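Re: the 263-residue chain
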Amino acid sequence: MAPKILLTNDDGVYSTGLRAAYESVAKLGEVTISAPAMQQSGVGRAISIFEPLRIKKTSIGDIPAYAVGGTPTDSVILGIFTVLKKLPDLVLSGFNIGENISTDTITTSGTIGGALEAASYGVPAIAASLQVLEEGLKFDDLRDYHKEHFEPGIQVVNRIAKNVLKHGMPENVDLLNVNIPHNATEDTPIEITSLARKIFNTDVEERKDPRGRPYYWIAGDLIREEAEGTDVHAIMQKGHISITPISLDATSPIKFSELEKYI
C-alpha cells in the first residue's frame, strides 16, 4: 500500500508554496491536499469551534485539492476525519513563504500549527518554510511566487519525508521544522538547530484615524543575530538550511522539587 500523505499550509490552497510541497512528496505516496481557502498566516493552532466549516473541491493546476473555510488546524482535522477518514502516514505543512524560526513563530505560525495538530494524533509531521527578504511577501496572494525559489527546498524536504516514512520520527520528536534560506542551492549546508528565543523586536505603532482617534499596528524589526546553533543564527547569519526537532511536550525539564518553594 502506498503511504498516505496529507498536505496543508497557511498561505492558502492556491499558494505556489503548496504546489512546491506537492512536488516534494508526489512520488512518495498517495497525496491529499486539505488547506485553507484563504490566507491564514499568524493564526497559530487556532481552531474554529463557534462556526461551521465548509469544504470545496478545487484544483491547483491539474492537482485536486480541498479548500477549507477555516484555519490550517481546521484543514488538518477535516482532512483526516472527513476526507481521508483515517490517519495519514505523514503530514507536510508548507511551503510557507516566509521563514518560521524561533519560539515566536512556533507559537504563532499557522504552518506550524497545522503540523502540530497532526502530530497530536501521532502522525509524523514536517513544517517547511522559505525565507523571504521582503516582509510584505509573507501576507500577499502568493499563487504566482516564482517556482525556482523552491527547488532546493523541494529536494531537501523530499529526502526528509522519504526517511521519515522509512524510519519514523526519532524518539521524543513530533515535528521537524525545516527552514530554507532565500538564496539556497543544492550545495547549501544543513544544520540541526535549536529554537532561538526571539525573531522579532516587538514594537507598537500608534496612528490616528480621520476623526483623531488612535489605532495601533503591532510591528517590529527582525532579529538577525542569535547564538550559534540556533535556527535564527543558521538562517540569518550563515545562510544555512535549518532543521529543528520540535516536541509537543512543553513541560519544562526542571526537577519538580525546585517548584516546592512556590507552593
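The chain has one domain: 4-198+227-249.
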